[in-house]
Every structure is written in C-alpha cells, then in structure tokens.
Amino acid sequence: MAHFNPWHDVERGTNTPQTVNGIIEIPKGSKAKYELDKESGLLKLDRVLFSAVHYPAAYGFIPKTYCDDNDPLDILVLCSVDIVPMCLVEAKVIGVMQMIDGDEEDDKIIAVAAHDISVNHFNDISDLPPHTLNEMQRFFEDYKALEHKHVTVERFMGREDAYRIIEDSIKLYNETFPNGAASESVEKTSGVEL
C-alpha cells in the first residue's frame, strides 16, 4: 500500500531555488532533535540534546532533494514566531552554512519565512545581524562537541551559492529517485536476496 511521505510527495516550491518549501522538523528553541522517519514519513524523536544549547532557528529539510549524506537538504528558517513540527513553510533562500560533520559535507540552507514581514526583507545573509550567524555556528559546533563528534563550520556563503547547492541536490534526487518514493522502495529491496 502506498503512503504519503513528506520527503517524496511534497513539491519543492514553484520558484525554486529562490523560494523553496521547507518542511520543519524542529522548532526554534527546542532541545529535542526530531527528524523525519524516511520509511514511514512520520516525525520521530531522535534524541534530546543534553546541554544548554537549543536550536537557533526552525530546522527542517527541502522535499525532493538529496545530498551525499543520504538525507534531504537541510534548511534553517528564520521566523519571528515558533513554527510547529511538520509545518510547510514557504522560505526565501538567503544563504548557506557549509559544515563538515565527521568527514562529510553537510550544508545547511539559510532562509527566511517568506510570509513573515519581520524577516522577509532580508535578501542575503550579509543583511543579517552578525550575532545571528555566530549563534548558528556555535550551536552546531557546541552540540556536536558535547556528543563527542567533530563538526567544523567551514564558511557562510550568500544566496547564489545556496541556489547552486539546492540545484545540485535536486539533480542528485532526480538521479537517485527517478520515480520519487517508488524508486526508494525498489532501492531498498534490490539488495535483498530472495
């Protein structure tokens, strides 16, 4: 029986890569790390962060994207209100935070909620107050360090670089899942000996 999966069954947005749909997994301020269970499409509690840190922005993913870490492309969405998990947000892309997690590249797209007048005037990450980027960097480096994992925030880059990364993740998704969710189930069963 086919079921709805937010990763494969929600559109990326009508004006990609400038504006994308972000599916929020974790609200700003949360100490809980929720993530999409890829198989069921439900949200699961991955872990509770055991530190004083909390998410500096709403955190989620862009549907129908795929990256080298076998996950959809991550997105941080700045908004003046808390966005609940599994909420679909139209997000205006303004930049990207390039991270190395372990040995893998782990890019985080930075965006603003397109329909929030408190933030939608930001057009590029260079428009943001400097402490906003510092907060994001400190959060990811600190929470991973407390879990004895090494993360390095390599650099922040502007929206043109973010657009390129989004387009690359769409291309990889289309190559990996030519039939959307249907090809994911084929991929899972193809390695099984009958």
From TrEMBL:
Mg(2+) 2 binds at residue 74. Signal peptide: none annotated. SUPFAM superfamilies: Inorganic pyrophosphatase. Residues 1-21 are annotated as: Disordered. The keyword Iron does not apply. Its cofactor is Mg(2+). Mg(2+) 1 binds at residues 69, 74, 106. It is an enzyme of class 3 (hydrolase). Substrate binds at residues 33, 47, 59, 143. It comes from the Bacteria. CDD domains: pyrophosphatase. It is found in: Cytoplasm. One of its GO terms (biological process) is phosphate-containing compound metabolic process. One of its GO terms (molecular function) is inorganic diphosphate phosphatase activity. Gene3D superfamilies: Inorganic pyrophosphatase. Its EC number is 3.6.1.1. Catalyzes the hydrolysis of inorganic pyrophosphate (PPi) forming two phosphate ions. Homohexamer. This is Inorganic pyrophosphatase. It comes from Hymenobacter telluris.
